[in-house]
Phosphatidylglycerol lysyltransferase
Amino acid sequence: MSDSFPKVSRPHLAAFLVGLLGLGNILSAWLVHHPARLFWLKQHLPWTVLRVSWLGNVFAGSAELFLSWSLVRRKTQAWRIAVFMLLISAITSLLRGLNYVQAGVNSAILAILLALKSEFTAASDPPSVRYGLAVLAGTVLFTYLYGLFGFYLLDRHFHQRFDLTEASRQTVAFLTWSSTPALERPNRLARWFLDSLAAIQALGIIYGLTMVLRPVIYRHTVLPAERERAAEIVQKYGRSSLAHLTLLPDKVYYFSRSGNSFVAYALVGNVALVLGDPIGPEEEIPQIIAEFTAYCGRNDWYPAFYQVLPDYLPAYEACGYKVLKIGEEAVVDLHHFTLSGNRQKSLRQAVNRMVRKGYTTELILPPLSDEILRQLKEVSDQWLRRQKGGEKRFSLGWFDPSYLRGCQVMVVRDAEGHILAFANIIPEYQKREGTIDLMRRKDGENGLMDLMFVRLIEHFKKQGYDTFNLGLCPLAGVGEAPGASLQERTAHFFYQHFNKLYAFKGLRRFKEKFAPRWEPRYLVYPHHLLLPKIALAVVTANAGGSLLSYAKAWWEKRKST
């Protein structure tokens, strides 16, 4: 991945050729070579050299096959190993059978790899248990198939007749270190085959176990000075409802070369998921998008930008990104909002009913006291018990006393003064728009949130704000326009048919009460084939980085309802 995504075709082609050649090197071990050439080699080379060359060719072919996927990902280390293995393949092709064609093909692909050296710039990502287990599983499958067809095609060299069933039995016996009569009297070619099967098995097991047992060594720690620099940039250039959330501790930063702009992202697997657009001077935004794209390419990460504004879509598309609308933000125009008139009759009546019953609101200024935080936590805990999946993160804040202590908080109290609902106010810095983060309530009277939102609107109007951002409605307005893409139509299907599970429509209906305008928000990602991976990264990041814990909490709550 370089500055734009279409440039990855040459590494893909090289990876395909290396993988295909690796398979060819393995298959060629089963073929009988020209008798005259073999006779000449036996006359001039020791038997040990012939056997080692045969094993070396199979070993190199297996390595080339395994390395092909890492070459697709443009790994520098994979390129180095592949170059060495192609050199081994070329030499052993000559030593074991004077196979000039095979040696020539190996040399040609080696030359291609050397010419494309500058394309393989991705650093190796940290090994993981999941990757190691996948290698072990792949080793079992590959060695079984290799043994199955090897025994089947070379049966005469074991002085037996093997059908596929018997070949399978012999493979399992050999791979489990069991003994059968056929394995006890192989000729030389059969012995070479058994040695190669053992070598492939050992290589896969050793490599897989190394990946499983090696600890994760990647740790990205954000220095205090980096957080301070990000806060300064947000203060100067922040202009969205997400700007303040980029300063929360679950984000790491990439700064532009000038140091005046940054992107805030979370690394989910090998997806670098950015929250919103880059923040900084407008003229620098296209450049930092290109810089961050190249930075991700060097680290073998897939970059994606979540909840971006329409403003910079041309800059993303210039870097090869795809764009998918993921929902709409509800924005209330404070200069025109009023409770008067027939249109707001039901909202006005709901607010008046709450007031008659003794419900009041209060704006609590920071720093919040321990007692206030305790009451807010009671509200939050009860609200979380009703939610499927528990506390969210990344594109939302979470209940953290140290975070909330420094926020303005609007609360709703009952007639006895108990806090029943709250929302914390967060700044948008260079945009005169009010917005909130957490929005939580206890079980109780319908109308609590209506009252709180109306009071928030009144507060922001008094402060001279132009708009009030009610937040994103996921999938709202997606796939409804004529000519919508397949991806958007799929999202629309999800919106229509999974509403009972996720309450998409209920959230939109609630926000419609306040007569907002709807502004589109987008997901920007590298390639359509990566969309499922990116979508999973979004869900994982919003679940706090642990999809398993999120799913478990969701299932427990589902069973209890």
The chain has 20 helices and eleven strands. The two ends are 47 Å apart (CA to CA).
